Amino acid sequence: MSDHPIKDDVSGVDTTGHEWDGIRELNNPLPKWWIYTFYACIAWAAVYWVVMPAWPYFWDGAWHHTKGVIGYTQRNEVGNELKLVAAGRAEVMKQIAAMPLQDIVKNDNLMEVALAGGKAAFGDNCAPCHGSGAQGSKGFPNLNDDDWLWGGTLSDIETTVTHGIRWEADADTRENMMPRFLDDSILKSDEVNDVAEYVLSLSGHSTDAAAAGRGGAVFAKNCVACHGADGKGNQKLGAPNLTDQIWLYGGDKATVVETISHGRGGVMPAWGGRLAPATIKELVLYVHSLGGGQ
C-alpha cells in the first residue's frame, strides 16, 4: 500500500509514503561521508580502468583486453619473481658445487637446499627404478636400509651416481660382473644346487644339510674371491652380503639357483654426464640421508 509522505512523530523524519501493515518507511538520507566514499570509488574505478588492464574486447577473431597505460601484467610480476628465485638458487648451487660433501653436511642452510633439490632430482631421474620412496624392487636396491652393494659413504655414493654401474659409456663405471656358472660350464647342475643350499644356509634358510655341506667346498673354490670366506661380501667389488636377510633378486631356492646358473649384472646409468655437478651432490646427500648412509 502507499500513502502520502508525512513526518514521523517519533523521529521527526519524513516518510517515503510507503506503508506495510501499519509500518511506515522512513526517508533517512545516507550519511555524507558514505555518499562521498561511493563517488570516490566510482572515480577510482574509472581511473583504474584506464591505468590497469581491465576491459575485454573481441577483435580479429579473438578475445583481447585493454593493456592499461602502465602496461602492468601479473605474468610479468611472476616472471620477475621467478628470475629472483632462480638467481638466488644459482648462487646457492655454485656454493654446493664448490664445497666438499662433508662440509655441506655441516652447513644447515646449504643442507636444507641440497636435500630439497636432491629429492626433486631423485623423483625426476631415479624413482622409475628405485621407487618414489626409494624402496626399490626386484633387481633395484632399496636405498632406505643399510645394505650397500658398492658402499654407503658419501664418497661411495658419489662415485656410483656419477659413473653408474656397468654403464658402457663411462670409462670409470663400476664393472664387476657375477659369472654364469652353469651357462659357462664352470659348475655342473648338481654343484649349482649344492652351492645354492650352502648360500641359503648362511642366512639360516637351507633345508638340505648334506647338500649345503657339499656346497661349502664348491663355494670356497669359486665364490670366496668376491663374497669372502664368511659370505659377507665385498663392497669394493659390488659383491652382496649373503648372510643377511636382504635379497636383491629374491632369496628362495629357485631364484638363488637361477642367480648362480645365469649370473646377475644390473645396470645403472652414469648421471655425471647428464646432471650438473651441484645436482649430483644434491642427489648424493639425499640418498645418504634416507637412513642407510654410512
Describe the SSE topology.
Blueprint: E1 15-20, E2 23-26, H1 32-51, E3 56-59, E4 62-65, H2 74-98, H3 101-106, H4 108-125, H5 127-130, H6 154-163, H7 189-202, H8 209-222, H9 224-227, H10 253-262, H11 277-289
Antiparallel strand pairs: 1-2, 3-4
Structure report:
- The chain is mainly α and 294 residues long.
- Among the domains are: 76-172 and 268-292, Cytochrome c-like domain (Cytochrome Bc1 Complex, Chain D, domain 2), CATH 1.10.760.10; 189-262, Cytochrome c-like domain (Cytochrome Bc1 Complex, Chain D, domain 2, Orthogonal Bundle).
- Helices cover 47% and strands 6% of the residues.
- It is built from eleven helices and four strands, in the order E-E-H-E-E-H-H-H-H-H-H-H-H-H-H.
- The protein has helices at 32-51, 74-98, 101-106, 108-125, 127-130, 154-163, 189-202, 209-222, 224-227, 253-262, 277-289; strands at 15-20, 23-26, 56-59, 62-65.
- A hairpin with a 2-residue loop joins strand 3 and strand 4.
- Helix 7 crosses helix 8 (209-222).
> Regarding CATH, which class of one domain?
Mainly Alpha
Order of helices and strands: EEHEEHHHHHHHHHH
The computed structural class is mainly alpha
> How confident is the prediction overall: mean pLDDT?
92
Q: In percent, how helical is the residue content?
A: 40-55%
* CATH fold-level name of one domain: Cytochrome Bc1 Complex, Chain D, domain 2
Classified in CATH, the superfamily of one domain is: Cytochrome c-like domain
- The total count of strands amounts to 4
What's the N-to-C terminus distance? 90 Å
Please work out how many helical segments DSSP would assign. Answer: 11
Largest sheet: 2 strands, antiparallel
Tell me, briefly, the overall form: elongated
Indicate the CATH architecture of one domain.
Answer: Orthogonal Bundle
Cross-sheet strand order for the largest sheet: 1-2
Low-confidence stretches: none
- Rg (CA only): 37 Å
Beta-sheet strand percentage? 5-15%
InterPro entries: CcoP_N, CcoP_N_sf, Cyt_c-like_dom, Cyt_c-like_dom_sf, Cyt_C_IC, Cyt_c_oxidase_cbb3_su3, Cytochrome_c_Oxidase_Subunit
GO cellular component, one term: plasma membrane
Organism: Aerococcus urinae
Pathway: Energy metabolism; oxidative phosphorylation
